[in-house]
Amino acid sequence: MEFVSEEERFAFHLLDLANEHAKKEGLNKTSQRIERLINKKRAGKTCQLKEYGFIIEFYVAELMEKFPDSGRSIAQIEKLIIDHAPILAAGRLNWDIQKGDWEADEFQEMMATAELIADRARNTDDSRVKILLIGLSLIIQYERFTSFAKGMIEALVLPEQMKDELKKQGKTQELKDMRKSIRGIQEENLSVDSQVKGNRSDVCHVRNAFAHAHFRFVDDQTIKLWDVSDRKITFESNFKVDELRHLANSFNQKLAFIQVYAYLLVATSGLLRCLKD
User: Fold this and answer.
1) 83 lies in which domain range?
2) More confident: 208 or 162
3) Residue 224: inside a domain, yes or no?
4) Which pTM value belongs to this model?
């Protein structure tokens, strides 16, 4: 494909990435809509402004149709991004869209391992083993797949220009306070079912509980999890297999939504600017 600018090339690269994620989530209508735009460009045809402008709406609508329970999460992320949209509209991004992505071979190896864990969790009849495997998968999800979401949220709320300006003015404490508040915003937008406590989402608390062996089985079907900060218990809850699986699946959907939404927002914003120019 031939591009009129580096911005347009970058935008279509993001559309390719968004298409990959949409396919993985089974969002076939969104994938078809993205591929239509890509194929038009490949054929040398010009897309209409509305074709770019409606693609995010289309994506959100299909996501809510496929995952009705994700409405609160979607509204939460949309509000965060829309509230800070001027940062993205100001010009080229000041954050690396690929932050958190692995090399292709490493990623494929990790996905194969994750699928192996999921397969064992599905097929074992031992509920205790099933719970521990889901706990392991949550640790992997949180450690390896939240960096992009957290980086995007920080870039929106505290862009590089603002950081540089605060440093020049010697406002180091203000910068520290802002970074601390951003951790709360990040965790709030990654939380699945509960309020954030101590700058930690419910998923973070569960991740910590499994990672630091803060758990015990109440019975064969139930595990008690707790998180500790400054020697105080900050989170405590019992989970059955289905409840833990719901947490893991909902968290995965939220991470996928954040990534695809960001790809589409940045791509369509860039393409709209290219068309207007």
Assistant:
1) 6-276
2) 208
3) yes
4) 0.73
